[in-house]
Design a protein that fits this description.
The protein is mainly α. Helix content is about 50%, strand content about 0%.
Length: about 140
């Protein structure tokens, strides 16, 4: 969980902080207010609980396939090959491979929207026209003063 603390910055700039809420803790971890230890403790407790739930579910789902690496649940992330070595995945492949080999679907329908020929052509004309205008007006040149 990331955040910023601007309390001293707004003081130096002479900015008055106005935080209106409908609840004692509605402004929890507000970046313009000083941190409150009780709120930090509460949020950290939530994060720790959610993290442990995640770890438990991954271990339950992956079982003995999962590596015992101490780095596994630290928040790091890995490439597909490293994930395979750590037991986070069973194999590498794309959606078509999974559809054919795992699920057994032969006819795969691709629902990816594709631009038609006229739209692609119009986009290219637009780019070409913009380049002509930039060149003709000299807007593409950097003027240093």
């Amino acid at each position: 969980m990331d955040g910023f603390g601007f309390v001293e910055a707004i003081d130096k700039l002479g900015v008055e902080r106005r935080l209106l809420t409908a609840g004692k803790h509605k402004g929890v971890l507000d970046p313009f207010s000083p941190l409150k230890n009780s709120e930090v403790k509460h949020v950290q407790g939530l994060l720790d609980t959610i993290h442990q739930q995640f770890i438990d579910k991954v271990k339950e789902g992956r079982g003995d396939r999962l590596s015992k690496s101490p780095e596994l649940f630290t928040g790091l992330f890995w490439s597909g090959e490293e994930g395979l070595k750590l037991g986070l995945v069973d194999g590498l492949g794309n959606s078509s491979f999974v559809a054919r080999e795992v699920i057994g679907v032969e006819k795969i329908v691709d629902f990816t929207p594709k631009q038609n020929y006229l739209d692609r052509f119009a986009d290219q004309i637009g780019v070409s026209m913009a380049n002509v205008i930039v060149t003709a007006t000299g807007m593409g040149k950097v003027n240093l003063r």
